[in-house]
Every structure is written in structure tokens, then in C-alpha cells.
Amino acid sequence: MSKIFIFKSPQKLEPYLKGFADTETSNHKFIYFGELDTNVGMLLEEHGISEVKRSRHDETYRLKFLQEYIDLIGTIGKEQNSRTWWASDIASKNRFMSNLPFLLHQFLTVIETIENEDYDHLIIINPSWVILDSLKKVFKKSNAQFVCFGSCFPKWKEICFGWCRRILSILSNTLRVSVRKSYFQNKLKHITKEALSHDKPSYVVKTFIYDHSISEDGIYRDSFFGSLPEFLRGEKQVLIYANILGNNKLCIEKIRKCVSCVILPVEMFLSYTDISRALILSLFCKIRIRKEVLFLGHDVSGIIKNELLRTYNGIPFYQLLHYWSTKNLIHAVSVETFLLTYENNPWEKMCMMAVREYSPKTRIIGYQHTVVPQASANMFISRKEQDIIPMPDKILTVGKAPEEIMERYGSYENGKIEPSCGLRFEYLFETSKSKRKKSGNILIVLEGIFEVYKMVNYVLRELQGNTKYKVVIRTHPVLPLNRMAHKLDHRIDDIPNFNISSNSSLKKDIEWADIVIYWGTTVALEALSIGKPVIHYEMDSVLSYDPLFECGHLKWVVSEKDPLIPTIDEIYSLSDVQFEAEQDAAKAYLNRYFFPINEEGLNKFLTSLTGGN
To answer: Fewer beta carbons under 10 A from the terminal one: N or C of the chain?
Structure first.
């Protein structure tokens, strides 16, 4: 009978390895979750224990996983269907807010190994404790003997410390929101009085304010909707309803001096009672999974329950506040149209629930404002939740390709989605094709996600010391390289052919490069739009984070186990005729992805009020 050994920590492994090696059989294999420590890897190799080879997931597997995941959340949503459920991170399916796809992938990796691998002993190292209860049920059904090394202390330690951090975080956020409410209401009372004094119905634009959103001369430029608010002002009474994500004092002073539109922060419409309600719900409300929940035929209710336990139900305090703030806004202003970004985020659903409940005649428009990679499961709704999930009356996309992606993977009513224009991507329509270069200049563009250090390490391993190539790393503003320096295999300053970009202009960096390497950033689209070949670094994720996952032109894909130089050589070896054909095909794809900003596209934000659903 096969045996399965689970080690919750690599540190528990060494005392037991000799015993495994001394058994009569030597067909021992291991699965390691996370990055395999060099010393642990050498120890396992020394004892003749081989790693289970995990192959890349093909498109059929990915589609099956995605559909099952969407329907899994839809099934739970149909059972729950409450404000607290729709406010949760798990319900959002946002890849940066919910850890569930990663956990389900871990779970399936073990199951597939049990079903397909030949072994006597299987050693599972460093799995998340969240999946263990569900795994043990599978082991019992397969009649495999299993032993789990490690106490429950780490689990409860994580829960207890996490609970303490959450309480402190919610209390500090409660205080912060209360102070901001008082400060904003005091500083903007004259604007509030003027904005709420008219009887004309308003077109409300729910958005976010940054330091750069308002110029020194008082002109507002929306980071998500571009020139749309200015266009709407010619037709409607426009109110900008916003979260301030920049410096509070600076943004408030700029809002006071803004001459192009009326801007009111979300906190302006909150009462202390509302803040108290959000505090109580965040701390004490529980989402309970009472039924068996299946994922690819396996009961994963234990994973859902443990993940809710680990994240303390994952109900974001600040996002809950949007329900009461929007409710109070509707009571203060006659809202004809409510426009907001559409990403299925908790705050969006809180706003829409309030509008539906307190102003059912108000039309809600959601704008899909950015790219839709396959991993954006938040953009795809399940047929099981189609009739209950808070949704806009109309969803406008940046172009035709995102509409097709959303309809392919999601279950939307006919006519719900319609392409409009790429409001945030004006610069793409102003770019011209760059001249091809073969100078060895390679640009790595990072995003503000910590895991991108893996891509940096990959390129370091492949190109360090090779003076044929000059490599520049362009970091994201929210994640400078020193924040991930401890995870890098080498100091960048010590490698002559590697540098960190000091350019303030992204455009200059892209123009300097022959080739751009990326993981999931939209910078790849900007590079492609001017004819730069791009290389997508694919991490070991079950769903693709590539914003160009459907585009196969002027784009190459590498993973950790692929050599990089042959791919670069392949790009350089294309004839000029082949290269230009690839450029034209890539540009044609982008022209379908982002429609130009014109009167026809802008008018859809008005005409969609009387059409559609």
C-alpha cells in the first residue's frame, strides 16, 4: 500500500529522510509547494527522492479549471446571496484579492499526482494548511496511508495573530475614516452645499482621485474615464463621487480649487452610525458554508471554510462603507445615471446594491476600463449567479476583443455588454511604428506585484555577464526594486550589463529597447502598439496573467525551464518582411482590443441609458 507523508514545514523533513531511504523500495517522490530551498533540494536528492514533474497546463485544462472555479463561486453565491457575501473577497474572484485559485490548484496537484504517478512513498512538503482537511478526505477514499508531520500550532498561531492584526487594522481604519469624514466635510462644505442645492438630475461618476488627477490650474483629468467627464458636462449635470487614493490634504486643496467639475469624496456621505455598522459587520459577521461544494468532482467545502477562517471572512471594512455612502448620496441627490468601473470588486457591488434598493429608476453603467487576462475571473460571472449578482444595466468595454472574452467565459444576458472606446488608452492611438533594432537592448517591465521577482531572477540567470545584451529593469512606482532585493539571486549593482531605469518616461524606455519582457503589465500593449516584440514570462499559475493571452503576433512565451537566448535569437532572426507582417498583425489585434475615442464611442455612455437591458 502506498504511503503519503505531509510535512507542513521543510524543517521537519530531515529527521525522517533516512528512514525513507532505508526501506526496501526506493520509488519515493515529492511535491514541494513554494520555492524549493537549495539545501532541501540537495537533501532530497541525496536520499534518492525525485520530484514529481509538473507539466505546463494546456489550454483545455485551463478552460476547464476556469469554468469550474467560476461555477464554484456562483454556487456559493446562490446559497448565500447577502450583502456580506457580495462584500467578500472570495465572492469577487479578483486574482489579487482572493487566494482561492492558488489553493484549488495546490489541491488538484496532489490529487492528480495520486491518480497518475507511480510511487511507493509520496512526500508533500509545505502545503497550505487550508487544503489539508479536504486532502485527508481524498486520502481516505483512495485507501492510502498518510501521516502528517507538524502540529496544529502554526495554523492557530496564524489565525490568532491574523485576527489580532485584523482587529487593529479595522479599528485604525475606523478612526482614519472618522477623521477623514470630519476633515473633508469641514473643508468642502461650501462645495457640498452648492452641489446638493440644485434639482436637476445628476450623472454620477464613481471613480478615484490621485495627486495628479487635478492640475495646478484646477483642470480635472480622470485616471479611469479620461476625457469622458468633460464630454458629459456638455449634456448632463455631472458629479464626481470619488475615493481619494492620493495625499489627502493635497487632493482636498486641489478639489477646492477645481474649476472643471464638482468632486465629492465618498466619506462626505457617511455618518458615524454608518461607520459603526461597517465596523460591526467586518468584525462579527460570518459567512457559513453549510452544504457540500464540488470542484471537478471533489468536495472542497473544507477549503472554502478554512480560507474564510484564515481571512476572517474576507469582508473589507472600507469597501462595505460604499453601501451606506451611496445610499446617503442617493437621498441627497437625484441620480439619473450611475457610472462606475466594472471589475466585480466588492465596493462596486456595494454601490450597485444601494442604487438598486434606494433608486431603482437610476440606470447603472459599468465600464470595463482595462485589459482582461484569462486570470481575471472577476470579469466572468457564472450562470448560477446570473440572476442575483449585483450587476450594471449595461457594461461598456474598451473594445471588441474584451467583449468577446467576457462573453466567452462568462454567462451574460444578450446585449448586456457593448464595446465603446479605450478612455484610458488615448496614447496608444497617437503612437507610430518604431524602427526595428538589433542592438541587444532588453527591457524588463515590472508591475506592482511582489511575485515579479521570479521574472527578474529568471532573466538574471539567463543574461547576467553576457555583454552582448544590455538589460534595463523598469520597476512599478508602488514596488521599487529594494522591496524585493532580499529575494533576488544577485545584486543588480554588481552586474555590469544590468541597470535599473532612471527614466521618468516609460515611452523613452520602450523606444530604447529591442525587446520587452513582461509578466502581466499593460505596458506590454504599449510596447506592442509601437511594434516592439514582447516576451511573456509565464509563471507556474493555472490561469494566464498575460493581458495578451489571445494574441500570438510579435509575442513569444518563456517559462522558468526555458532558455531565454534562443528566443531572443529567434526574434532577431526574423526577416524584415516577416517582422513587419508580425507588427501589422499585432497592431490589428490591438485595434480590435481598444477602440479609438470618438463621438460615437463617447455617446454610448449616454445612449446606453435608453437601450439594452
So the answer is: N
Domain with CATH 3.40.50.2000 in the chain: 432-593
Name the grid cell of 83: 450583502
Pick one of 2.20.25, 3.90.660, 3.40.1350, 3.40.50 as the CATH number of 172-286+299-425+601-607: 3.40.50
| DSSP of 100-124 | HHHHHHHHHHHHHHHHH---SEEEE
Long-range own/partner contacts, residues 406-413 (CB < 8 A, 24 or more apart): 406/368, 406/372, 406/379, 406/380, 409/66, 409/67, 409/70, 409/374, 409/379, 409/380, 410/70, 410/379, 410/380, 410/381, 410/382, 411/380, 411/381, 411/382, 411/383, 411/386, 412/381, 412/386, 413/386, 413/613
Q: What share of the chain is helix, strand, coil (3-state, %, to 5)?
A: 45, 15, 35
Q: Is 537 helix (H, G, I), strand (E, B) or coil?
A: strand
Distance separating alpha carbons of residues 423 and 421, to the nearest angstrom: 6
202, 194 Cβ separation under 8 angstroms:
no
Q: What is the pLDDT of residue 79?
A: 94
Listed in sequence order, the residues at least 6 apart from 496 whose beta carbon sits closer than 8 Å to its beta carbon are: 465, 467
pLDDT of residue 613: 42
Q: How many CA within 13 A on the CB side of residue 528? A: 29
**Cell (9 digits) for 113:** 499526482
CA distance 390 to 352: 6
Q: What predicted TM-score, i.e. pTM, was given to this entire model?
A: 0.91
CATH architecture, range 3-56+97-151: 3-Layer(aba) Sandwich (3.40)
Minimal CA–CA distance to 421: which of 208, 611, 608? 608
What band does 22 get if pLDDT is binned at 50, 70 and 90?
low
What pLDDT, in 10s, does the model give residues 398-444? 999 999 999 999 999 999 999 999 999 888 887 788 899 999 999 99
- At the second CATH level, the architecture of 432-593 is 3-Layer(aba) Sandwich (3.40)
- Which burial class, exposed, middle or buried, applies to 35 when counting CB atoms under 10 A from its CB (0-12, 13-18, 19+)? exposed
Q: What's the mean pLDDT when you consider all of the chain? A: 91
